[in-house]
């Protein structure tokens, strides 16, 4: 067989009016599997099953006895059109599709060309078979006869007619900037042969974060008999590329996959904060959103917002709260709200009865007597050593008074000593004075208020969006 230079270009055929779509496959010259390619960077790749695989070291390259002068130098733009597969970090077995020939200077015949398939070398019988298979002469590697014999021999290959490759086309894609929880791609195909119309599809999604290609997501083609792929949005912000190629019943695949690049715009806290809400409550004052953290790291919520996706609204979540609200001595104390794995923030949509945002404490249940708060009622119990010296009637009244409720001083049977004790110990103000120095006085829960008078979310389908101080999405909850 005589070495020839073959140039393959894909002819894109579209039936007029068949597809009203702005998306199509690239019309660039795609090399066949087995070809070595290189862009402007130092990395050398071997093409295998339509993926470019980085040959990690010179030792691996030499271990295959690859020829340096067979590397095809291409533009970075064209290099990016090949999805990135797993790295090749050893020379134990040749990549699928590799083309090898015994070097006549190293005891080979210099004639027979083999295609590596399923770990075996398969002789391509004629030059016409080589051309019909759509292979590239520049990908043929001349290796020693000894190296050639390490590849088990398989059946020879023949191909009577040129391969006709199907075509995949994207018909629906997400927005160029993605913020949602999922993305959906829809595609269709055109069969290259009238007798092979039953196409399947293979997809691949690749991360290109901070100019580093091939981070996570897919490591190989993902098969699909359907014409769509829905995937969860990756947690890391950055650029991603979706590829799709068609495959006919004989396994012939599209050489140039259709593709679509999109950017994921997400907060560093995406998937690190849990959100629950009662946005369908009957009144605005009953609507609330609860934020809890999944990480042990301290997270400042300063500048964060919540809002409606449908109405495109944003409301700033209060980030400062009173430590001890409505107290004559401590009401000026306040602190910045910080979210971590141990605490939670409840954002009330309506107006706050105290007029301030606040942190819960061990005594705050007393305020339920005067305000429609419905905060937890687990105040410290009365000191039994102190009340045992009070009258029997007083002790009974105190024991029958619900927790976090002040004793009804208007009861006629209560003596002055009992009334004085209740006023000095069993009130919100005195509870705070007595207990505020204890380590467990403060609870890990903040109540904040947006002070709105109308619904934030649409009555029908809508999504609650939480954004950080840079307007990046932290969480989305759909209703």
UniProtKB/TrEMBL annotation:
Matches recorded under InterPro entries: Ig-like_fold (IPR013783)
Signal as UniProt keyword: yes
Protein name: Uncharacterized protein
Signal sequence extent: 1-20
Keywords: Signal
Keyword Signal belongs to the record: yes
